[in-house]
Every structure is written in C-alpha cells, then in structure tokens.
Design brief:
single chain; alpha/beta; four-stranded mixed beta sheet; 28% helix; globular
C-alpha cells in the first residue's frame, strides 16, 4: 500500500489563524508539531518511506520543504493550482499508472486528529484487502460520538459485503452531506451510520474507471496533457472526490473504525482538545475572561480582556480579527469566499 497525504486545503473555517498563505495543515494546533507533521509521523513505519507521498499545490511547496525536509522531492505530487480533492486524487492515480504501478493507495487528509493510531492502521489494512478483493473504492467510516452537523455521514448496509473480505466491511448505501442538527441526532441513533472520514483506499486503475465514468472531464484533461499538469488543471472542474465520484458510484464500501478521530476543521473543534476553565471557556493565548462562559478564544500577541459575553468565537492574529457567535461559524467559509 502507498499513502498519499493530501495537503491542499485552505482551512478557511479557522480564519484568521489559518490563511491562504499559511493554511491550517502547516500550523501547530494540538502539539508543537504542525498538523501535517503529525500526519506524516503517523505513517512512518507503517509503509516504507518510498511509499509515503505528499500531494500539495505548488504555492505550498516551500512550506512543505521547510517542515518536512526528509521527504525527497520525487515523493511530492505537486499540483499547479488548488482544484479540490477530485483533481488531487486523479493526478496521483494518473502518475502511478504512468509508472505502471497499480498498487492500492490510501488518500489521507493532512489535518485530522487521531487518538488511536494503531486502530487507524489496522482499519487501513482491512480497507486495502477489501479494495483489492472487490476492485472497489473503500472509505473509512468513523463511529460517531455526538450529533455533529459539520460532518458528512455514511449510511451503510447491515450485511457484510462478501465472505472473502474482512468481516467488518460494509456497503455504503448513501452519503449525507452536513445535515441539520436535528437530522444529525436522528442519524447517530442508527448503528449503521458513520461519519465520513474523507479517507479512501483504492487501486489507481479503479479510481481511473470511476473518474472516467462519473466525471470524465477530469481524466480527459490528464490524458490530453499527460506531461503538463498546468494545462491539465486549467481545464478541470473544481470538485471534491465525494461529489465527483463517491456519491455517484454504484458500489462504495466502508470499514468502520474507532480511533479517536477528529476533523480539526473549525474553531468549535478546539474545545475538544483544550482544557476548559471553570466557565467552559477554551482559551489559547494571553486572554482574561470575566463573567463570560462557553467562549472559544484564540489570541496571538495580546493581552486581551473579554467581559460579559457568552458562546462567542474570538480569534485575533496578525491576519485579522474574528468575533462571532459559535452558532454562526458555519457561515464563515462562505463569508470569506464572498470577499474575494
């Protein structure tokens, strides 16, 4: 198995801590290491260094070289521009097939937290076997611990997919994209429902067939410009791999996993990894809160004094200042997009 760590996101939901020129995957959130450094370390020893790749846009190449100096240049899959995960997956699969290599590949987001590494690695091994046996795309489904409307969900079949695959293998019946809070509560009451981890495992040839079938413009661009990624990317649609393929494919399989997983994708994820004060405030930086409860505060520089407010996100960095109710956080990404 090969590992491709996808590091192309902009991390807009953690603005202003994460910005276009230095997105969240290259920032330390949960330790002294950046998220991508933690992700790379997670797979050292699981696969040989010759099978550990980083896929990232050209603009982030200098940061990656600085933070991951031991990753050789030929292990970097460089995208000429940011086109979301469908283009990233297609480019990696295309490169491997160009080299005559159809070994299964696990595509891993670079900005996720995993509390139980061994459980994750065991599930990836099971996913590899299912992908090979059924010639299919396999995703990891995270057993939900709360009704969270910021995640996508997988509805799976109760029966195992086939006798020849790991017993935990399930078939995905439907994808549910970021449901309402009420719908999320309904979903987690079903034992056959999992969070969508965004982690997929498949052979490059399997991915090629699926992309050619469901979003042919992406693969056609690579075929027309096999040695010119910039020209290929110029004509590609900007789509996630979920929208381009996963939600439209006839058969997608799932390996459930409990590994202490968390998508560190928003300010509201911070309290799950930060000790709270007596009033339930999550505070990073030089900030004092008075008669304030349930806030998420991130301050660079400082000091900051916050008095008499509840359930706010307050984030101050050299890139900007954010003050909003926690309930309004889902609008942050669209608001930032509208500014451009």
């Amino acid at each position: 198995m090969k590992i491709v760590i996808m590091a192309g996101g902009k991390g807009t939901r953690i603005w202003p801590r994460s910005a276009d020129d230095l997105p969240k995957q290259f920032l330390p959130f949960l330790s002294e290491q950046s998220l991508i450094q933690e992700t790379v370390d997670r797979f050292r020893g699981f696969v040989p260094s010759s099978r550990l790749f980083i896929a990232l846009p050209q603009r982030y190449l200098p940061i990656a070289r600085q933070q991951l100096p031991d990753i050789p240049p030929h292990m970097l899959i460089v995208e000429p521009e940011q086109k979301d995960t469908a283009a990233c997956v297609a480019l990696a699969a295309f490169r491997f097939l160009q080299a005559g290599d159809d070994e299964p590949v696990a595509f891993i987001p670079s900005d996720q937290y995993v509390g139980d590494k061994e459980a994750l690695l065991t599930s990836l091994t099971a996913a590899e076997k299912t992908a090979m046996t059924l010639d299919a795309i396999v995703t990891l489904g995270i057993m939900p611990t709360r009704p969270d409307s910021s995640y996508g969900y997988l509805l799976t079949s109760a029966a195992a997919a086939a006798d020849a695959v790991p017993a935990e293998t399930r078939q995905v019946a439907r994808f549910v994209e970021k449901p309402s809070a009420e719908r999320a509560r309904e979903l987690i009451s079903d034992p056959n429902v999992y969070w969508n981890s965004g982690i997929i495992v498949a052979r490059p040839a399997t991915l090629r067939r699926s992309i050619e079938l469901h979003e042919p413009a992406i693969w056609d661009c690579l075929t027309l410009h096999p040695h010119d990624p910039a020209a290929a990317y110029a004509g590609m649609p900007k789509l996630s791999i979920d929208h381009a393929v996963m939600e439209r494919a006839e058969k997608i399989y799932c390996i459930p996993v409990e590994c202490g997983w968390d998508d560190v994708g928003s300010w509201t994820s911070l309290p799950r990894h930060t000790a709270l004060d007596n009033d339930g405030n999550a505070i990073r930086g030089d900030a004092e809160l008075i008669r304030s409860a349930g806030n998420i505060v991130y301050v660079e520089g400082g000091p900051a004094l916050i008095i008499g407010v509840n359930d706010l996100i307050v984030a101050s960095t050299s890139s900007g200042l954010l003050i909003c109710p926690k309930s309004e956080e889902p609008r942050l990404k669209s608001w930032l997009s509208s500014r451009k």
